[in-house]
Amino acid sequence: MSDELAGIWPLLALRITTPRLELAVPSTDDLLNLAQASREIQPPDEIRFQQAFLYESSPLRERQLLQHHWRALAHWQPHSWDLHLAVRVDGVAIGLQNMWAADFATVRTVETGSWITRRHQGRGLGTEA
């Protein structure tokens, strides 16, 4: 991420780190990895809690994941926002942590959602994110 670009859109410089992972606005490489990784969120016979597009067939699922992220970033406003953060382990995006709010200055409420690929589940990474 260039400092010049982050100077124009400061959200792009956001980093949250823990001992095992990093949360950051997804880079282009992260988005490609997440689009591919979205194939393995949960077994097909489980109840679906995630956004419907995550259960579409390829390449529609990947395309809609990209559109959803870009739309959220483009429409960011202090009073109404949807923040998508890549969950990175060892520099590789393995899932997304989302936080969103509407009329934030008045309501002061934030909602969250997340997904981690199946092969990374069960290690507490989602909780840590």
Summarize the structure.
Helix content is 30%, strand content 26%.
How would you describe the shape? globular
Q: What order do the SSEs take from the amino end to the carboxyl end, as H and E?
A: HEEHHEEHEH
Mean pLDDT over all positions: 85
Tell me what portion of residues adopts beta-strand conformation. Answer: 25-35%
Task: Tell me the name of the CATH homologous superfamily.
Answer: Gcn5-related N-acetyltransferase (GNAT)
> What is the radius of gyration?
15 Å
CATH fold-level label: Aminopeptidase
Biggest sheet overview: 5 strands, antiparallel
Secondary structure layout:
Layout: H1 3-8, E1 15-17, E2 22-24, H2 28-37, H3 60-74, E3 80-89, E4 92-102, H4 104-107, E5 111-116, H5 125-128
Antiparallel strand pairs: 1-2, 2-3, 3-4, 4-5
Helix pairs in contact: 2-3
Features:
single chain; 129 residues; alpha+beta; Aminopeptidase; five-stranded antiparallel beta sheet; 5 helices
Explain this structure.
20% of the residues are buried. Helices cover 30% and strands 26% of the residues. It is α+β, with helices and mostly antiparallel strands. The protein has 5 helices and 5 strands, in the order αββααββαβα. Strands 1-2-3-4-5 form a 5-stranded antiparallel β-sheet, covered by helices on one side. The protein has a single domain, classed as 3-Layer(aba) Sandwich (Aminopeptidase).
